[in-house]
Amino acid sequence: MKGNRNAIAETIENNVRRTILTRHLNDPAYYERMSALLQEIITARKARAIEYEEYLTRIAQLARQVEAAVADDTPEPLKHSPALRALYNNLKQSGATPSPANVIAEGRGDGAGSGDPALDMAVEIDGAVKRVRPDDWRGVQARENTIKEALFRVLKNQGEVERIFLIVKAQSEY
Q: Distance between CA atoms of 161 and 94, rounded to whole angstroms?
């Protein structure tokens, strides 16, 4: 394998893909983006559209992003909280956040909003979960329902509650 560039490239790709798959539940939206970027790099390598050195540079950059779990365009308030970042990425991807006018009309706006509805919603969900989460809540239906109830008060949509709850449940921060 030492002299075979294709074998080396495939090994690197498999390692990056394995990391993406194992972390996918923590932040599905982010790791779906990383998976798409990986596929783009693989396709370019196989089509010989990029030189091997450029391939190595791009795959190394992707591996650093996967390891850090922080995109370059991540807002500053999210850079230090993986749970908050996961909520933001998934709310932003789904487009399930209300418009700023709806947030204010529903009494959730306190005038200190960021101007980014996904960020404001993620911060609100994060705060709600931290306020109501009981000790050892994972796997105990009644305790999980306490969190789902808090999510419903924020999201007002049962389907979104179930989707976001899976993300909340995957976070060690909660």
A: 13
| CA-angle at 151, arms to 149 and 152, nearest 5° | 65
Q: CA 12, 13, 15: angle at the middle one, nearest 5?
A: 65
Digit-coded pLDDT (tens) for 85-121: 999 999 988 766 554 444 433 444 444 567 889 999 9
CA distance 77 to 94: 20
| DSSP per position, 30-78 | HHHHHHHHHHHHHHHHHTT-S-HHHHHHHHHHHHHHHHHT--TT--GGG
**pLDDT tens digit string along 118-151?**
999 999 999 999 999 999 999 999 999 999 999 9
